[in-house]
Write a structure and sequence with these properties.
By secondary structure, this protein is an alpha+beta fold. The protein has helices at 7-22, 36-44; strands at residues 26-28, 48-52, 57-61. Helix content is 38%, strand content 20%. Strand 2 (48-52) and strand 3 form a beta hairpin. It is globular.
Length: 65
């Protein structure tokens, strides 16, 4: 059985990832205007991570070398 791909989620996740990269690699989680589904998609793909700064949470791009 073929896996159904949700192109809307992929495109929107790519937009969020581009936005994160343009902003220096991280943004405060409370300022992100994308749905939890999109954020969870990027977390599942291990493209981003959530960091606790002590003053809030940041969504940051995972650096791959």
């Amino acid at each position: 059985m073929a896996k159904v791909v949700d192109y809307y989620v992929e495109r929107t996740a790519a937009r969020l990832l581009r936005s994160l990269r343009k902003s220096g690699g991280s943004l405060p989680l409370h300022r992100i205007q994308f749905s939890q589904t999109i954020i969870q998609y990027l977390l599942d793909k291990k493209l981003v991570q959530i960091k606790n700064t002590g003053h809030g949470f940041l969504l940051a791009v995972v650096e791959k070398f």
